[in-house]
């Protein structure tokens, strides 16, 4: 299986990915964290990236996270793409979730006396 | 059971690829395929369940949950609960018998969190799988994978939790078993039950409506949970977290994903509740511990990865 280089131009990370491996899996295997890891099944949209350069094959992805307009802009789910050439990717900003915010805020504002 | 809702009866899960999904829920989780229909849906059940199916898979291009159904005592109960839903101001949709094969008529409604639920009174009684009704053996041979014993509950994310609580408690007769409160007194999580189980259904607040966090399947022992973890590794299945213990409900658990990214849980144990029990309360500043009792830190993936 040919191996390709994936370069994340947002974070500067690069790693090797085989043609039969998803970009997300290859990243996880070398211990990098430059793309958020969610379900690894094309369902949650957590690992969304933009491919700026390079060919790839694409598995099934949730239309909720990659509607046709987004796909046309090169937006894909890293857990569902398999490189066919060296790839340059970039991060897509993630929406901040309310509950994480809420809980983090709770943690900050509830102070307990130290003993 | 106060108003005649007995138990979670079924859930319809959307998957991207039917073949992969069936393999996941049968070979790995251990459910049993019981039927298919002309829409291409696949019907599954766990071995201790007496009715024909509890999990229905539907292939489409957007994973998630179509609806969850509760079985009620009888037709009279169905009629009175339907009236209750209407009086509450909810629109109800009548789904004819046999739209799901082997299931009687269903009454579907969507609550303010954006999730669709159904009530029904009849489903084909096929009995526990692989054991006889009279003098049954302890368990059947020939089960696969994790050998899940039943579809137990689901957790949903969405807005308007107070209104959802109102429907489930006042119209459907559930009671609030556990809750998470933020410093301003908002309930950001609610675990509801129609039984003695600590939850038959749970909701966590999020602004985005209609999201599925997980469907959950019951195992007998902690050893079974560990064995489930082994199977997740053996099959290179996407793992979320575990084996560990929850603070909420104190269940012993492991989370993983189906091939379309829908989160699944298998768990054992957990507290019990009666309608006279006060809700167990966790505070938002201890949310990390409430969710994963050993880690005690907020796990962003667990809180935000949804379908
Ligand atoms: S990790 Fe969920 S879509 Fe890729
Ligand atoms: Fe659960």
UniProtKB/TrEMBL annotation, chain A:
Pfam families: Fer2. InterPro entries: 2Fe-2S_ferredoxin-like_sf, 2Fe-2S_ferredoxin-type, Beta-grasp_dom_sf. GO terms for molecular function: iron-sulfur cluster binding. SUPFAM superfamilies: 2Fe-2S ferredoxin-like. Residues 2-95 form the 2Fe-2S ferredoxin-type domain. This is Ferredoxin. It comes from Marinobacter persicus.
Automatic annotation (TrEMBL), chain B:
It comes from the Bacteria. Signal peptide: none annotated. The keyword Repeat applies. InterPro entries: Catechol_2-3_dOase, Glyas_Bleomycin-R_OHBP_Dase, Glyas_Fos-R_dOase_dom, GlyoxalaseI/FosfomycinResist, VOC_core, Xdiol_ring_cleave_dOase_1/2, XylE-like_N. Keywords: Aromatic hydrocarbons catabolism, Dioxygenase, Iron, Metal-binding, Oxidoreductase, Repeat. It catalyses: catechol + O2 = (2Z,4E)-2-hydroxy-6-oxohexa-2,4-dienoate + H(+). GO terms for molecular function: catechol 2,3-dioxygenase activity; ferrous iron binding. Its cofactor is Fe(2+). Residues 7-122, 150-269 form the VOC domain. Pfam families: Diox-like_N, Glyoxalase. Its EC number is 1.13.11.2. Belongs to the extradiol ring-cleavage dioxygenase family. Homotetramer. This is Metapyrocatechase. The lineage of its organism: Bacteria, Pseudomonadati, Pseudomonadota, Gammaproteobacteria, Pseudomonadales.
């Amino acid at each position: 299986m040919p191996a390709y280089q994936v370069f994340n131009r947002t974070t500067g990370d690069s790693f090797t990915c085989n043609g039969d491996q998803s970009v997300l899996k290859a990243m996880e295997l070398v211990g990098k964290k430059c793309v958020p890891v969610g379900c690894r099944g094309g369902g949650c949209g957590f690992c969304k990236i933009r491919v700026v350069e390079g060919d790839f094959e694409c598995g099934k992805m949730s239309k909720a996270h990659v509607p046709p307009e987004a796909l046309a802009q090169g937006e894909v789910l890293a857990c569902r793409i398999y490189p066919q050439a060296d790839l340059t990717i970039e991060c897509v900003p993630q929406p901040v979730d309310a509950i994480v915010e809420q809980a983090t805020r709770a943690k900050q504002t509830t102070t307990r006396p130290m003993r | 059971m106060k108003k005649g809702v007995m138990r979670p009866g079924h859930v319809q899960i959307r998957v991207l690829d039917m073949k992969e999904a069936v393999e996941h829920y049968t070979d790995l989780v251990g459910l049993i395929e019981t039927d298919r229909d002309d829409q291409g849906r696949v019907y599954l059940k766990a071995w201790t369940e007496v009715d024909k199916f509890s999990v229905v898979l539907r292939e489409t291009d957007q994973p998630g949950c179509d609806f969850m159904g509760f079985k009620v005592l009888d037709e009279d109960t169905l009629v009175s609960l339907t009236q209750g839903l209407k009086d509450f101001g909810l629109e109800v949709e009548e789904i004819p018998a046999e739209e799901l094969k082997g299931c009687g008529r269903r009454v579907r409604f969507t609550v303010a969190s954006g999730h669709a639920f159904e009530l029904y009174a009849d489903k084909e009684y096929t009995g526990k799988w692989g054991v006889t009704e009279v003098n049954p053996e302890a368990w059947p041979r020939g089960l696969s994978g994790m050998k899940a014993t039943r579809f137990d509950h689901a957790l949903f994310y969405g807005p308007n939790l107070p209104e959802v609580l109102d429907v489930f408690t006042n119209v459907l007769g559930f009671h609030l078993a556990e809750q998470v409160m933020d410093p301003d007194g908002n309930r950001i999580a609610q675990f509801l039950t129609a039984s003695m189980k600590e939850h038959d259904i749970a909701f966590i607040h999020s602004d985005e409506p209609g999201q599925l966090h997980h469907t959950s399947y019951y195992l007998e022992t902690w050893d079974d949970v560990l064995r489930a973890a082994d199977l997740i590794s053996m099959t290179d299945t996407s793992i979320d977290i575990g084996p560990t213990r929850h603070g909420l409900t104190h269940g012993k658990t492991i989370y993983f994903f189906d091939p379309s990214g829908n989160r699944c849980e298998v768990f054992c144990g957990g507290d019990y509740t009666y309608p006279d029990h006060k809700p167990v309360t966790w505070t938002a500043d201890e949310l990390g511990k409430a969710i994963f009792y050993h880690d005690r830190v907020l796990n962003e993936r667990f809180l935000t990865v949804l379908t």
